[in-house]
Design brief:
mainly beta; six-stranded antiparallel beta barrel; four-stranded antiparallel beta sheet; 2 helices
């Protein structure tokens, strides 16, 4: 995937993006674009917990519509397959097109994880996985990227989860 050129569909139209860093183990990539957006999802230092309410966003079923779609649920487990502590298990439905999309804390709007995979076959239902936000943050920082502080000046202001996701989630596809 390294040095691959991609296209990002966002509110500003379609833009080119380039993979600058990639982690094979996490299946996570750092992309470079010309987007100068002030809209982003805060990566909090808060510890995630089981039963925490979450919302996942992505672009599954593009043949039906190109609208960003939401699904909600909880964090079911703080480990993935084989006790992988880099992952969380969620019960929010994930489908092809959700991969790489944000999983955010429903109350605060902070990143809880990044959608990664779902269990299929064998009678499994609603067993889906995401990369923990702490591992995403570590990946970004290890690649010498400074994460800007997004601390809200008005702590009492209720966050509009819909707007956070609509303004910061993009569709990435191969050129």
């Amino acid at each position: 995937m390294k040095n691959q050129n991609l296209i990002i569909a966002c509110p500003k139209g379609r833009l080119e993006a380039k993979v600058v860093k990639y982690d094979d183990q996490l299946d996570l990539a750092l992309l470079k674009t010309s987007i100068k957006s002030k809209n982003c999802i805060e990566i909090s230092d808060k510890v995630i917990k089981k039963m925490q309410s979450i919302v996942a966003a992505g672009y599954p079923a593009m043949q039906l519509s190109d609208d960003l779609k939401f699904t909600s649920g909880i964090i079911s487990s703080l480990k993935g397959i084989g006790n992988n502590s880099a992952l969380i298990q969620i019960d929010a439905a994930l489908n092809p097109g959700n991969s790489g999309g944000p999983i955010i804390d429903r109350k605060e709007g902070h990143l809880a994880g990044v959608a990664m995979a779902r269990m299929e076959g064998g009678g499994y239902q609603n067993i889906n996985y995401g990369i923990k936000a702490s591992r995403v943050k570590e990946f970004i920082e290890l690649n010498n990227i400074t994460i800007p502080s997004q601390k809200s000046k008005n702590k009492k202001k209720r966050k509009d989860i819909n707007l956070i996701l609509e303004n910061s989630t993009v569709l990435v596809f191969h050129k």
